[in-house]
Automatic annotation (TrEMBL):
GO MF annotation, one: UDP-glycosyltransferase activity
An annotated GO BP: carbohydrate derivative metabolic process
Taxonomic source organism: Handroanthus impetiginosus
InterPro entries membership: UDP_glucos_trans
Keywords of the record: Transferase
Pfam family, one: UDPGT
Name the UniProt record assigns to this protein: UDP-glucuronosyl and UDP-glucosyl transferase
Length: 457
């Protein structure tokens, strides 16, 4: 039995769910723990998912307190208004007793946990508008306080081994660890991977204590599900779960278009463009004259209203049949969240990278270095402007030599990923099985010793 405990974001939950489905086919029983609103999303997706097995995959609700400003519908990172992240983190930390009770009740052979199960003695999350984007800075550490992982410590107190599962790329950890140890990223062995001053996610990284950069890995038992030690494969959702009505709209739009003439635009479920950036992207699409499918999201329960609605309606009238704005499709003018990067590579689609925050700039530079995409240049103030967005789009769609080279590289990478997918999952399965069996054996020995000791008294 394995218990999985991802952070409360779809970009973490579904990468946790995919290997759960594959492990269930190998007779593992998986308990996936999250909040009610996130479990509802899984239940909705599994209805059309032939690979989901209710017998071997169990959903377990994590009860977190409903704060006044944080009703249950916001017990998730998906579409969370940017100012409510501090409240979600606070409520999540207050759920430790619920998690502990779940762990005792299930008593799994192994816990697989996520990076964001953290407690802070002092935590202040803040938001700010920067570069014309609603930019949410994850956390600011005051006085370089020590970060302690919640989930593995609770598991350890109950004699349950735990493994850290990385939903982020290994390059990110390597770069941040280098900054932590060396004081800056200038001497990182791969010059193509770098961060600008305005892109540093945690300004206190280089001064933090030893647990900060890779503290999660220290608490992980024996293996880490990242890097070459235990590669899990791409973990792309293997499902027919989609909105048929929206799919019909998209296929109707694409049916009369030439191949490689359409761009997809999406910034994930956790990031929201400002009004100014929406206008710049729209103007860039008009400059290019390309076909497009654009996912536009707003935080929480907000809809397209006022200026945004009026502008986008007018914009669609001008471009007529060249584009479609939809409420939920994966896109490849991307913010470069790791899940989006993996989807692009898996399906062989080049990326036009517009990173916003956190690990995304590192991912964007990795895409460029691999030759499978381009990064949109920013103005000196950090704003993405129409001319440079259009330039990046044209480079991947219009410039023939660059287009063909990029598509060929992306296609080869896609083939390589798919070729290794089954092998990687088999290796993961065997390593997890070894740890589970080792724990069972240790438990049996402890019980045996306890039984003999009790009999002699």
């Amino acid at each position: 039995m394995v218990q999985k405990f991802p952070w409360l974001a779809h970009g973490h939950i579904f990468p946790f769910l995919e290997p759960a489905k594959r492990l269930s086919r190998r007779n593992f029983t998986i308990y996936l723990c999250s909040t009610s609103v996130n479990l509802d999303s899984i239940k909705n997706s599994k209805k059309k998912d032939s690979f989901y097995d209710d017998i071997f995959i169990k959903l377990v609700e994590l009860h977190i307190p409903s704060l006044v400003e944080l009703p249950p519908r916001f017990h998730t990172d998906k579409n969370l208004p940017f100012n409510l992240l501090p409240s979600l983190l606070k409520a999540f930390q207050m759920s430790s007793s619920s998690f502990s009770n779940i762990l005792s009740s299930i008593n799994p052979d192994l816990l697989i946990y996520d990076m964001v199960q953290l407690t802070w003695s002092k935590l202040r999350a803040y938001t700010r508008k920067k570069f014309g984007i609603l930019n949410l800075i994850n956390v600011e550490l005051e006085e370089c306080v020590r970060i302690v992982c919640l989930a593995p410590k609770i598991a350890s107190s109950k004699g349950i081994p735990s493994i850290y599962f990385a939903t982020l790329g290994a390059v990110l950890f390597s770069f941040y660890h280098h900054v932590h140890m060396m004081g800056d990223g200038l001497t990182f062995p791969y010059p193509a991977i770098y961060l600008l001053d305005r892109e540093i996610m945690l300004p206190y990284l280089k001064d933090a204590d030893d647990d900060f950069a890779l503290g999660n890995l220290k608490m992980s038992c024996e293996i880490v599900l990242m890097k070459s030690l235990v590669p899990t494969g791409p973990l792309i959702v293997d499902s027919n779960d989609y909105d048929h009505e929206e799919f019909s709209k998209i296929m109707k739009l694409l049916s009369g278009k030439s191949r490689y003439s359409t761009v997809y635009i999406s910034f994930g479920s956790e990031y929201f463009l400002s009004k100014k950036q929406i206008v710049e992207i729209a103007k860039a699409l008009e400059l290019c004259g390309v076909n497009f499918i654009w996912v536009v999201r707003f935080p929480g329960d907000e809809k397209m209203i006022g200026i945004e609605c009026a502008f986008l309606i007018e914009f669609l009238e001008r471009v007529q049949m060249k584009g479609l704005i939809v409420p939920g499709v994966s896109g490849f003018i991307s913010h470069c969240g790791w899940s989006s990067v993996m989807k692009s590579m898996y399906f062989g689609v080049p990326i036009k990278a517009m990173p916003i925050k956190s690990e995304q700039p590192i991912n964007a530079r990795l895409v460029v270095e691999a030759g499978v995409g381009v990064e949109v240049e920013r103005e000196s103030g950090g704003l993405y402007v129409r001319e440079k967005i259009a330039k990046a789009i044209n480079k991947v769609i219009v410039e023939k030599e660059f287009c063909e080279d990029t598509r060929n590289r992306t296609k080869k990478l896609s083939e390589k990923i798919k070729e290794k997918e089954k092998q990687d999952m088999n290796e993961t399965t065997m390593d997890l099985l070894k740890i589970c069996m080792k724990n069972k054996l240790q438990g049996a020995k402890s019980s045996s010793k306890g039984g003999r000791g009790g009999g002699g008294k």
